[in-house]
Amino acid sequence: MQETKDNKEIEQKDKTNWQAWYWGLMIFLGVQIAIYYFITNLYTA
Amino acid sequence: MSLIDWSVLLFTLFAIVAYGSWKTRKNKNLESYLKGNNSENWATIGLSIMATQASAITFLSTPGQAYESGMGFVQFYFGLPLAMILISVFFLPIYYKLKVYTAYQYLEQRFDVRVRAFTAFLFLISRGLAAGITIYAPAIILSTLLNWNLQITCLLIGGLVIIYTVSGGSRAVSLTQKWQMTIIMGGMFAAFFYVLDSFPETIGLSEGIDIAGKLGKMKIIDTTFDLKEKYTLWSGLIAGLFLFLSYFGTDQSQVQRYLGGKTLKASRMGLMFNGILKIPMQFFILFIGAMVFVSFQFNKPPIIFNTSATNIEIQKQNNLILLENEYNAVFEEKRTALLAANSDTKNIQFLQEQQDSLRKSYKAEMSKIDSNYEEKDSDYIFLTFVLNFLPHGLIGLLLAVIFSAAMSSTAGELNALASTTTIDFYKKFYKDSKDEKKDLMVGKILTVAWGILAIIIALTAGLFENLIQLVNILGSLFYGTILGVFLLAFFFKWINGTAAFAAGIFGQIIVLSCHFLSVYGYIELGYLLYNLIGSLTVISAGVIIQIIINSNKKTT
Question: How much is the pLDDT for B464?
Answer without folding.
Answer: 56
